[in-house]
Write a structure and sequence with these properties.
By secondary structure, this protein is mainly α. The protein has 9 helices and 6 strands.
């Protein structure tokens, strides 16, 4: 297990997902959300009126990241998973945290990664920047910036610099 990859992913996720301890609607077309962007809590959909503590939010984030880590390991296979750099794994964890494993499976960059047996390259990162940047058919600047941050992280950038650079992207 790469604790460094989990640390990098956590840092980037926290730059995008602020901890909100009462359920809220992130966008008009979204679903109730709580903590660090959780749409499910203790196996159930989040509902308006739900509240959690900061410790629960932190624990929930680490629990979800660990579950995604295990799912990625199984999905990619041992050799491809072991070929990932810590930065590439952190970017994948952030992507899956935001979009889900199911959406990862339909992305071109995922297919490239599988074909290349886990070897991450600039083309993989470039393809990541255009993956899942819309919601209900509308391009969202926040998702464009997040994918840019994940791509930069995957190539070795620090989470804070990747985030800062992505904020320069305009509509």
């Amino acid at each position: 297990m790469s604790l460094y990859a989990l640390q990098l992913a956590t840092e980037l996720i926290k730059l995008y997902e602020k901890s909100v301890l009462k359920a809220y609607m992130p966008t008009p077309n979204d679903v109730p959300t709580i903590g660090y962007g959780f749409t499910r809590w203790k196996g159930q959909p989040v509902f308006m009126g739900l509240s959690i503590t900061q410790k629960e939010a932190e624990d929930g984030l680490q629990t979800e990241l660990w579950e995604f880590y295990q799912q990625l390991e199984k999905l990619l296979g041992e050799q491809a998973f072991d070929n990932l750099t810590d930065h590439a794994l952190a970017a994948l964890l952030s992507f899956v945290y935001n979009c889900g494993i199911g959406n990862l499976k339909i992305c071109r960059f995922y297919r490239r990664l599988k074909t290349n047996n886990g070897i991450w390259d600039a083309d993989t990162a470039r393809e990541m920047t255009t993956s899942i940047v819309t919601q209900k058919g509308k391009r969202l600047l926040g998702l464009v910036r997040r994918r840019a941050s994940e791509a930069a992280l995957s190539l070795g950038e620090t989470p804070s610099k990747a985030y800062k650079d992505a904020q320069r992207i305009a509509e």
